[in-house]
Amino acid sequence: MGTAVVEEAVRSGTTEPRFRSADELREVLDALFTEIDADPVFGSRLRRANLPYRAIYPDLGVVLDLAAAPDAGAHQLLWSFDGDVGWTPALTLEMDSALANRYLQGRENFAIAVARGAIHVSCIEVAAAMAYLPVSIELTSRYRAIIEADYPHLLVG
């Protein structure tokens, strides 16, 4: 499925940075949350936000589930790409993976993307969506550092 997305981008002349495959998207997100999980300050902050979250990237068929670890032990966070988790997301965001890449680099405004219908949001309660925004802003610098180091083809100008 991911190869078809890349091939379509080439055919249509789109030069927007894109993930090469679903595996690459999972790899980048896994690196991001592994780094955050190991950070005693930000990992703890994200854990305390206690926001079970699901991100759906339909163009690549990837679903990410993220939640606070039940105990502040070895891990702050739990995440999975297999859809078989023991929690219900309080917030679900659905967006194209290229948009997610721009958003995670701080190159896409969340509110405008939602208003345009480019990001579909569903939440159990509005407070869940509001709790997500300040936390998501902190992801930007870490995400950008990861792609600068290991995935430069994803950088947005």
Q: Explain this structure to me?
A:
Strand 2 and strand 3 form a beta hairpin. Mean pLDDT is 86; it is low at 1-12. Helix 2 packs across helix 6 and helix 3 packs antiparallel against helix 6 (126-150). The protein is an alpha+beta fold and 157 residues long. Strands 3-2-1-4-5 form a five-stranded mixed β-sheet. The longest helix has 25 residues, at 126-150. The protein is built from six helices and five strands. It is globular and about 45 Å long. The chain has one domain (2-154): SCP2 sterol-binding domain (Nonspecific Lipid-transfer Protein, Chain A, 2-Layer Sandwich). It starts with a helix and ends in a 7-residue tail after the last helix. It has helices at 2-12, 22-38, 42-49, 97-104, 110-116, 126-150; strands spanning 53-57, 62-68, 77-80, 91-94, 120-123.
Number of H/I helices = 6
User: What percent of residues are in strands?
Assistant: 15-25%
As for the CATH topology, it is Nonspecific Lipid-transfer Protein, Chain A
How many domain units?
1
- Uncertain runs with pLDDT below 50, 5 residues or more? 1-12
Question: What is the CATH level 1 assignment?
Answer: Alpha Beta
The separation of the N and C termini measures 26 Å
CATH fourth-tier homologous superfamily: SCP2 sterol-binding domain
Identify the CATH architecture.
2-Layer Sandwich
> How do the strands line up in the largest sheet?
3-2-1-4-5
Q: What is the rounded Rg?
A: 15 Å
Described by strand count, sense and barrel closure, the largest sheet is:
5 strands, mixed
Overall geometry comes to globular
The topology string of helices and strands comes to: HHHEEEEHHEH
Number-wise, the strands total 5
Mean pLDDT: 86
Which class of secondary structure composition applies to the elements? alpha+beta
Q: Which range best describes the helical content: under 10%, 10-25%, 25-40%, 40-55%, 55-70% or over 70%?
A: 40-55%
